Amino acid sequence: MAEASGGGAGDRALDLDRVLDIALGLAEEFGWDQLRLSDVAEAAEVPLPLLAAHFPDTNAIADAWFARALAAVWSTPPELLADRDPKVRLERVMWRWFEALAPHRRLTGVMLRAKMWPSHPHHWVPMIFSLSRLVHAFLDVARVPGRGAERALQEIGGTIVTLETLAVWLRDDSPGQARARDVLHRSLAAGAAVLGRLGPTLRRFG
Fold first, then answer.
1. 174 and 201, same structural domain?
2. What's the pTM?
3. Are 126 and 116 in contact (CB under 8 A)?
């Protein structure tokens, strides 16, 4: 993914994916709180003004990292969506997001905590909208049927399952974060059982 602009070195194309990877590498090495745009620009060998035009602060770098994970959800391979059971499809799609974040799992937790600092209330509302957008993507990509009140309950349940799994995933050192995957599986099974009982009633309000 590159942004192109004409002119000389100061206006050269910026490879956003490459810059993001460099920024993440520096954050892993020196700490998220020590990450500076000037250091990223120097390591990426790009002009600081050009970098700042795309990443005005470290929160923008975090947003780009989460946007990359969301893109992985939207690009879920068809073979992962072939199962007839929507619960199976949903689990696979949701785990795609966690797998995309796994290379920088601990750093991801630091980013989320930074966004939730009391001194950063301007990050709270965007986080809520980002979570809602993520859950909508999960349901959409997994082709989970539902409308009206049923869909609304799916969205609430999907949000709860995402946060439950995330809380375990962030501190899960088991191979491949197997404990978190088990939490996701069991939580989705429990949610599907509840929806199965309520479904006929909810569909009347759809």
1. yes
2. 0.86
3. no
